[in-house]
Amino acid sequence: MRIPHLLAVLCLVLSAAAATVVAATPSGDAALGTRSYDDYERPQACATCHIDIARQHEQAMMSQAYTHHWDAIEYFGLAVPHAEKEPKVAGVKAGCNGCHAPIAFLAGDVPPPHPEAGSRANESVSCDLCHTITGFEGDTPFNYNWISEPGRVKQGPRAGRVSPHHDTVENPFLRTAEFCGTCHNEKDPWGLWVKSTHLEWQEGPHGKAGIVCQDCHMPPAAGRSATMGEPLSDVRQHLFHGAHDNGKLAGVIEVRIHPESREAEPGDSVRLTATLVNAKAGHKVPSGSSEERVLWLHVTATDAAGKTWHLPVDAKGFAGEEMTIASETALAYQDIGDIKGLAGFPGLKRDGEVPAGDRIFRLPYLDPQGRMTIAQWNTASFGPDYRLAPLAAVNETFTWKLPQDAAPGPMTVTAEIWYSRLVSSVAEYMNVPREESEPVKINTHVTTFEVL
Ligand code: HEC
Ligand code: HEC
Ligand code: HEC
Ligand code: HEC
Ligand code: HEC
Question: What are the residue ranges spanned by the domains of the chain?
């Protein structure tokens, strides 16, 4: 009597546990193919009432995460062919879409039709995807582990909102950095953090102070969030401006330069120190797609007669440092040849058009053979993390033997910070439009000393 009773209780407990597992909404890779496109409303439907938010979102990269030229080129030109021939990276054929075309991923439409076909994959990171996210699975947000519950109820930041088109529910998760981290942290097939914007934020001063992503990328302004909505003092603007907004980049790194001495004679060794500060960003710079971005310090000196010299940076001597000093001859990205099946492909210029001798602030991503790669999914190790951490400074020195022909009078030394979203050699080879690699000047400072 007792034993069958215990068994019955055990069975009840087990079936209850099984029921919870079945009822839980799948997230991450398990969510592939669990929905249909029709479960989600189109952004155009939301735009009829949320006009300003819709127009802002249309100008943000997240509304183009699937259609943007370089995204389509990298996905169809490198990731899909690589996934089809290399079992280790087979998962990225679907996985890229978990963040770039989440509704196509949920619908199991992978690879989705090319952007030119005009399918619903083109909606990219849309209103209804974000506003049906209820939370995330696990302890750390990464690899699209958000949980989406589509339907009439929209998740919002406020309580008591009334809309004729949908129901709303207040969900504090939307106000957290972890919400963004579900797509802004990425672990690759080798288990490396190839994207870690949220983790960098978490360990930096902004994370510790509770200044979240939304505070800088969705700042509050007075207005209404919908045409027939109530006036509010702090409507969250959907700007999501980042590395593709030259205004957001402007001044993001501050630079000051000074000479060791205000006077020097030709033949003297002159030492200049440049100090760089990541003053505006809540994470490292570059962040996110660090495999593609180059940020560099360019220093020149011009004498009283107008003659200009380019000063190469002093090496500091840390392991892997050569990858942070621009070289005319270094080659990289040989895995593009492996993926495309080009025998004897020599690689491309590692540093594109960055002038040789300039310091590059970057995180080198290395493929399984230890060569620098642009394919974050093919990254088996990293070089030195030489990026600029938030609210921290880095000093770089320039030791220069003053040339005999330097004219007497003021020597003007200029330090410039330049940024490129995609290293230019890769952009040229892959036919990516110039705007993606065009160098952007983000700051400058000038100092002088006297040539005696
Ligand atoms: C017919 C008009 C209309 C349409 C269409 C519409 N909304 Fe709304 N929505 C509103 C109104 C009105 C409010 C309440 C705004 C207020 O009073 O602050 C609202 C509120 C919201 C909120 C809650 C905001 C908060 O402060 O918490 C979210 C989220 C939202 N809408 C998302 C969407 C999404 C996503 C779509 C498209 C799938 C959509 N809405 C379509 C009218 C609309
Ligand atoms: C990448 C995810 C994401 C996308 C895409 C997105 N939103 Fe939001 N939205 C948010 C978050 C997060 C908040 C809350 C921010 C906060 O309060 O800190 C928000 C807030 C809102 C609010 C309330 C604003 C307020 O302060 O009262 C409305 C309404 C809204 N979104 C509608 C939309 C519509 C319509 C679209 C598409 C045109 C859209 N959202 C696209 C993430 C997103
Ligand atoms: C569903 C996944 C997803 C979520 C959630 C998400 N993002 Fe994104 N985000 C992306 C993708 C994918 C891109 C890359 C777009 C592209 O292809 O250039 C991106 C791009 C951006 C950019 C532009 C970067 C640039 O290079 O200009 C900013 C800024 C940004 N996201 C901020 C946020 C913030 C803030 C949140 C949280 C409120 C958030 N994102 C939530 C997927 C997401
Ligand atoms: C203190 C303000 C601030 C905070 C907090 C902040 N950002 Fe940024 N973010 C910036 C600035 C400024 C830039 C432009 C510089 C750059 O591209 O690195 C930027 C750039 C970005 C980019 C483009 C990075 C690149 O190199 O391609 C992404 C993506 C992004 N932010 C997402 C986030 C996410 C996600 C969070 C939260 C985990 C966050 N940001 C927190 C200010 C901030
Ligand atoms: C975990 C989410 C996630 C996954 C998975 C992911 N991405 Fe991204 N991707 C992002 C985010 C977020 C950004 C924007 C980061 C930034 O601006 O710094 C981005 C940026 C990019 C960019 C740069 C866009 C630009 O214009 O600068 C390309 C290209 C890209 N991803 C391609 C891919 C490919 C191909 C795959 C699959 C191999 C992939 N991504 C997988 C989230 C993801």
Answer: 24-236, 246-451
What token pair was written down for 255?
């630079």
- Ligand 3 touching residue 293 (CB < 6 A): no
CATH classification of 246-451 is 3.40.640.10, yes or no? Answer: no
Q: pLDDT tens-digit profile of 345-393?
A: 999 999 999 999 999 999 999 999 999 999 999 999 999 999 999 999 9
Cis peptide before 111 (omega within 30 of 0): yes
Is the CB of residue 50 less than 8 Å from the CB of residue 226?
Answer: yes
Q: Which of 155, 135, 126 is nearest to 240 (CA)?
A: 126
Model pLDDT for residues 153-179, shown as the tens digit of each residue: 999 999 999 999 999 999 999 999 999
Pocket test for ligand 1, best of 131, 154, 158 (most atoms within 8 A of CB): 154
- What does the block give as tokens for 38? 């029709």
Q: Band of the pLDDT at 134, cuts 50, 70, 90?
A: very high
The verdict on pTM exceeding 0.85 is yes
* 283, 360, 388, best to mutate for ligand 4 pocket (most atoms within 8 Å of CB): 283
Amino acid at 282: G
Confidence of residue 23 (pLDDT cuts 50, 70, 90): low
Q: Which residues line ligand 4 (CB under 6 A)?
A: 177, 180-181, 184, 197-198, 201, 206, 211, 213, 215-217, 242-243, 248-249, 252, 280-283, 285-289, 293
Paired with 310 in beta bridges are 300
- The best mutation among 125, 199, 212, 217 to test binding of ligand 4, ranked by most ligand atoms within 8 Å of the C-beta, falls on 217
Span 188-242, pLDDT tens digits: 999 999 999 999 999 999 999 999 999 999 999 999 999 999 999 999 999 999 9
Q: Which ligand is nearest to the CA of 45?
A: 1
Rounded to whole angstroms, how far apart are CA atoms 22 and 28?
Answer: 16
Other CB atoms within 10 Å distance of the CB of residue 138: 10
